[in-house]
Amino acid sequence: MKNDYLKWGALAAALVATASAEYELARAVGFNQWVAAAVPAALDLYTVRALRAHREVLAAVAAMIGVNAASHLVTTGLVPVNVWLVVAVAAIAPLVLWRVHSLAIDVTAPVYVERVEDERPTGPVVPAPVVIPAERTLTAAPFLWDSVAPPKALPVTTSVPAETAREVVTEVVALSPAELRRKARRMNKLAVMMTKRPVTIKALQDELGLSRRDATDLRREVVTP
After folding, report:
1. What percent of the chain has pLDDT over 70?
2. CA distance 21 to 72
3. What domain of life does the native source organism fall in (predicted)?
4. CA-CA distance, 214 to 225, in Å (whole number)?
């Protein structure tokens, strides 16, 4: 919920508690005091973005735990500052930039629908013959019908509309991330019921029109308990 003050209060407290260790680790590997402050800021922004998007929360929390643990190990002298530790700390900011940008992009899937435009005749008007019988003729003998003239086909035409065409227009409807997750959860539930296995990446690609990368991320969300 947007007004869940306990959740956001706990987040603020956690970010403040971990910021000091993250800053000290950046200083220990050679960052100056101004650049070192960007390390906890980057991790904090990544965590907030993950919580708001309801994605990669575990990865954000794991990153904070790893950085804090490394900081305390270096501070207590249990782990020396080596090449790999410097490389790992230097990679934090670029990795955070990549993941925050990825979480900011809404995943959409094309859904194709058909819309029928106005109907228009595609051919000429087809004449339909109408047969009108001729009148009976009287003979000279009064009150007696002598003969009946055979019916004649008179050239009378009426307008009959020809077959009309249906113009089909394809439109693309974008699904929101929440709608994609709901559809994916239903597909996963059905797959587990029928095959005892979770939904596959290929099934999500085919059904929702996703790329393999987006289908992989979506499957991870709906399959991971």
Report:
1. 67
2. 7
3. Bacteria
4. 19
List CB contacts of 131: < 8 A, sequence separation 6 or more: 151, 153, 154
Please, which residues bridge with residue 111 across strands?
173
Domain boundaries, the chain: 5-104, 175-223
Q: pTM above 0.90?
A: no
Interval 42-72: pLDDT, tens: 998 998 888 888 888 899 889 999 999 999 9
